[in-house]
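Researcher: Next sequence.
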Amino acid sequence: MTVPRQSVHVDSPTEGRNPRTMDIDQMSTLDILRTINTEDQLVPGAVAAALPQLSRAVDAATEALRTGHRVHYVGAGTSGRLATLDAAELAPTYNVPDDWFLVHHAGGAAALREAAEGAEDDERAGAAEMTRDARPGDFVLGLTASGRTPYVLGALAAAHDLGATTALVSNNPDAVRAPGIDLVIAVDTGPEAISGSTRMKAGTAQKILLTGFSTAVMVKMGRTYSNLMVSMRATNAKLRGRSLRILREATGSGQQECTAALMAAHGDLKVALVHLLSGVDIREAAKALSESSGHVRRALGLLNAHAIS
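Model: Next structure:
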């Protein structure tokens, strides 16, 4: 006889039945899509309400990176896949070192391609991941629509015990705050169009939060100049063309001058940018950037201060 696995009642708004979509299975194709889209339009407002808490997470993560520590994402299912996607895109976009952002996904790499929903119930596995990889001073961000995923909560508790700062993104504002969580970022997206399908509004909210979180951290870490991606890796023809366009937009210099500056800087967009904006040679531009931890505006300020003195 097969022994039934333990079941748990999840008390979360995301599991509730949405009164606005009760007849979705009787709608036309266009009306189904309009109904889902109407629900999706509720997400930005829910995210906006959580921005004060998200800003605290950004500041904590930035402090961790500035002091030589790392940022960890922890998730299961949709949350873990979204976290993996966000971290993967930081390297080409902002030239982020491989060890700045680490992702811990319940079920491992295989669960990115195929569902491994049972893995989220393994609290000890989450704790073991942190025991192995987290360090005092790190920042750990967990993501779970329900606010109760054992794998995520186990990881956060273990990381907190190790001396890391911890935060939890949840779509359940009524979830009991588990031990070991320093900051809760609750986004109330309400019931899904299809009850319990948290890859919908809850997932959209988490994608927006993750993109905002990592982008804000990158801005504060000096990986941009104005709103330009001056730290990106130009690894193909399209990105090399983008580097040249960014340099022209930032400096107002012509194509030939920008091309020459990039060549002299061995493709380092920031060095070429500081060189053109300040007028100093490539070596001085590189030195100023090194002394300002890679921040273009700080490097320019440093060079300006030296010129005045």
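Model: The mean pLDDT is 92. DSSP finds 13 helices and five strands in the chain.
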